[in-house]
Amino acid sequence: MWYLMENVQRSYTLSERLLRAIGIGHGGGTRREQEDIEDLIRQGADVNSYDGYHRTALHHAVERSADCVRLLLAAGADTDTIDINRNTPLHWAAFRNRADCCRLLLQYKARVNNMDFNNDTPLNWAAMKGNYQSVCVLLEHNASPDIRNYGGMIPLMRVAILLAAGLQSPDDEKSFELLIRCMGRIELRDRDGELPAVLARDNKLRSKLMAVCCTPRPLMQLGRRVVRMSLGQQHLPSIVPLLPIPERLQRFLLLEF
Fold it and tell me: Looking at residue 169, what is its pLDDT?
């Protein structure tokens, strides 16, 4: 019994050290830091232990270092673990625009449409910051652009708010166009047929949004959305080329135009 208790205490201490090594104030990005993390894992640190906010080492690592994320995943870190707000590591990677970390998590089978306490998906988090690189990676893995949070917002609305604020970057514009491209039917209006006030104050944006909401989407656009939905969560650039359809249609499914 004493031996078991000592091992438990030792593992707990190592796990605490692992969280500190990757958490705030440390990057996990230098070679020395990576060696320290490797050594802690090798000695038996629990990669799925969590801090007071229920955030694991992976939650912290995705904001800082793809190499550190790779170490944790190889050691068995849970890709879908949630913190006290039900945020997964993929939410945080998308929010920080760590597209490399998003890609790693998805390669290790993280669920692309996990929802937090507000029903926001990682795509919603990426969109609210205009993080184009992360939006691209998430859509490559067939993230849904249609999931509404409890406030009724979808990713397209998140990007549109950035554009309406007048402080947009080229990445915001590209995210906006890509999200329109990947959707089928688009409806952003309320029951009275009006856009939310935050989107209606920019006349140019209002005209564009009203056009996509009021005008029936082309059949090809609707068909693309249905086909992508039927494929489920997969890495579409690997799957779509295997479909027995013309190359141009494959490129269309992959949102190239």
Answer: 87
